[in-house]
Structure formats: structure tokens, C-alpha cells
Amino acid sequence: LGNTVLHILVLQPNKTFACHMYSLILSYDKSKEGPGSLELIPNNEGLSPFKLAGVEGNTVMFQYLMQKRKQNLWSFGPLSTVLYDITEIDSWAEDQSFLELIVSTKKREARQILDLTPVKELVSLKWNMYGRPYFCFLALFYILYMVCFTMCCVYRPLKPRTGNRTSSRDNTIYVQKMLQESYVAYEDELRLVGELITVIGAVVILILEIPDILRVGAAKYFGQTILGGPFHIIVITYACMILVTMVMRLTSTTGEVVPMSFALVLGWCNVMYFARGFQMLGPFTIMIQKMIFGDLMRFCWLMAVVILGFASAFYIIFQTENPENLGQFYNYPMSLFTTFELFLTIIDGPANYDVDLPFMYSVVYFAFAIIATLLMLNLLIAMMGDTHWRVAHEQDELWRAQVVATTVMLERKLPRCLWPRSGICGREFGLGDRWYLRIEDRVDPNKHKMMRYTEAFKAQDRDNYDKGSEKLETNGDTLCKKELSALSLSLSRSTSRTSSHRGWEILRRNT
């Protein structure tokens, strides 16, 4: 019952009342230390009161709980050293870490905790010492891997075509080799090494991704933008396309260009995932994801309806015409593709001035240009501009959340020997088996003096202005409104200059 009340207090809107009641309940806890403590008992979702405060974005309760966990090591004048308990915060030995919970929640208030002590210092320590070097090395390794795969695709086994052409529009001159013909020369053996590296890389990607999907859940794993959800879909689809290409090569099945081309596009697009390691480029990946899976997905439904309707109209108009005079609409699939290009203004309206085009083509194309180019494209630009404005105001905290998510991901996947635990064990200071983070704090006394002097200046300015206003009100019957406003303005300026001069003199003497 006490643990349930603690969880309820974390969710209370009145933060001050919740903190006092939290301390009152813990004062009656007989087992304040150890696994039987009320603070360490999780709820049905596996969250302790401390983790629940982070998930809900309750910064007041989080700071209150951290103040209870800290240990003052020593202090000397303005310098002090504090040990913060990071047992539940550090993701090194936690199955459901505090950092991962914060970046996976959809509440913006939770991301503000990443800028508080000691979470900010812990993340900075992990990222600068291990996260950034490993992530940059991983990015370089992936780019080299993609270059190897691209070279294998460029020099894939082809042979001249032997069959006759069946259509005047057929311009195929090379076809795919059979398996027995693909690995004969020395160049083929060299390409085989690159293909083996590509296949092994695809298998490693699946081995690394599938356990996380089973642990977190597909909806949460692919749906969180901060965690790189869309990029996980891209890299898993890429690995599957590689395996499909391998099966088609081994069975000598024609058409391997389809999965191979998909793999090339997806593999190189996944390079954008590594932009999150840089503060300048990281927020742009968030913008791209939100625009594609937010604005563009909604816009595609409207675009599909417009393209389908006008492509059908164009095909019907040119169904009775000679395709050699205007071949952009010679069949229905080509009509869809041409209309799509016209929609995005990639090409101009097809025209042949040597022949007479149908009159309805001009009418339909006029309506299409008004609806598609002027109306819908400007609507898409406005939607993307609004998304860019919203993300730009959150780019700093979004980048911090990306860094945390990347750090947790690397910490889980890398061996323990490459990523030692951060912090100091409490046994060195007689504090048990808990782990602590040492933070040195400096209290600047001049800062507090400056604040007091500023408040004194403001109060003195207000008093001088009130006295001058009272004097003007007593003589207000003999002055006109214009003289009153001019006199009050000059008086306020003179008093502010005098008080400001006096304030700066005090600051110079104290300095």
C-alpha cells in the first residue's frame, strides 16, 4: 500500500505537497535500505517511483529524489564535491534503464530531465569517452561496407544478349549470367569476396536487430523517432533484400536487379542515421523523419487520388492516337508515371507541334496544372515549413535525446570489455555496493551579489519614480497634459541615470 501511494504521489500535479507526503511516508518505512525499501519496489510496469518520475517528466520530483540520493564528499569555500547515486540512472547493469525510458517516452517534459544534474554529466561522460569514438568508427565501417556492396552491384555478372528483339522499344543488350558462368575469371573471384562480405554484414544486421525487437516490441521499436525507428525499418529491409538477392543468384533466377536496386537505395539512405552523432546534422534527421512519416504520408493520399484521376483521363484521351507522335501516354502504367512527373513539375507538359493534339488534352492539362502545381504543392510546402518551425524550437533537446539513445544502443551491443562502467563504486567511501558519479560544483558568490544589487537598483528606481509622480500629481492642476508627460519622462531618465551611476560605483568598489 505504501509503495502504491508513492507511485500516486509522483503523478500528483501539486509537486510541493507530493514531495512532503513522499518524505512522510518514507519516514514510516522500516526497511529504508535494501531490496525491501518502498522506493525500490516496482509497479506492474516494472517502474520504481524514481523511474516513474522520469517517464512522466516530473522534474520537481526527480530533483527532490536526487537530493535525497546525493552525498556531500567535501566542500572548501565556493568549491564542493558531491557524489550522486546513479544506480537506477546508469544503463550499464539495468534491463530497463532510466535513460532508455526517458528517450522512449512521448512526453516532451521527460526530455528536459536530460539537462539536469547528474543525468547531463553522466551522458556527457559516456558520450565523450566511449560513445562518440565508437559511433564514428561504426559510421566509417558502414560507409566502407556500402562501397563494397555498390562495387559488387556495378560489376555484377552480365553477358551479351543472344535472343532477337520482339519490340521496337526493346533496347536490352545484356542479360544476367547463370550461376555456373558467374565465377570463372579472377575478377569474378574478387567480386565473390565482396559479395561474401555483403551477405555476412546483412546476417549480422539481422542478428543485432531482431533481439531488440523481441525485447522492446515492434510498435515501440519502429514507432519512436528518437530511437531511430524508421532507420531500423530501412536497415532490416536492406538486409532482407540482400538475402533475397543471394537466393536468386544461387538459383539462377532472373530479375535480381529488383531486390538489388532496392538494397542500394535503402543501404545508402541508412547513412543518414549516423548524422545523429553530430550536433549540426542530428536535428535534420528528425525533421526528415517527421516530414516523411507525418506530412508526406498524409499528402500522398491526396496526391494518389489526383494522379490516378488525371492519368486515367490522359490515357483515355490518347488511347486512339498514334503512340509514335506522343508516347508519354501510350499505355496506362506510362500514363501514371508521366502524370506523376507532371505533378512534381519534373517535366513540362508533353507536346508535339507537328501534329494536331486532342482538344480535351489542353482542357485537362489546364485543370491539372492549377490543382497540382499551384494548389497542392504549395500546401505541401506550407505543411513542411510548419514542421520545420516546430522541430527547430526543440532541436537542442532532440539532439540530446538522440545522443542518449545512441549511447544506450552502443552500450548494449558492445562487449563489456570495450565499455567499462562509469562512476565510482560506493565501497571506496563506505557507501555500500551502489555506484556514484563525482561532480565538482563551484558556487560563485559574486553571482549572488550581482543579483542582490540588481534588485536594489530596481527597487530604488521604483521609489524615485513614485516620489516624482506624487510631486507631479500635487501640481497637476496648473500644468497641461503635454508638460506633465515631458516632465515625468525627464524625471524618470534623471533618476534612472543617478541610480544606475550609484549602482555601478558600488559594483566597482566590491570588485
TrEMBL record:
GO terms for biological process: calcium ion import across plasma membrane. Residues 135-394 form the Ion transport domain. It is a multi-pass membrane protein. One of its GO terms (cellular component) is plasma membrane. Keywords: ANK repeat, Membrane, Metal-binding, Phosphoprotein, Repeat, Transmembrane, Transmembrane helix. One of its GO terms (molecular function) is metal ion binding. This is TRPV5 protein. It comes from Polioptila caerulea.
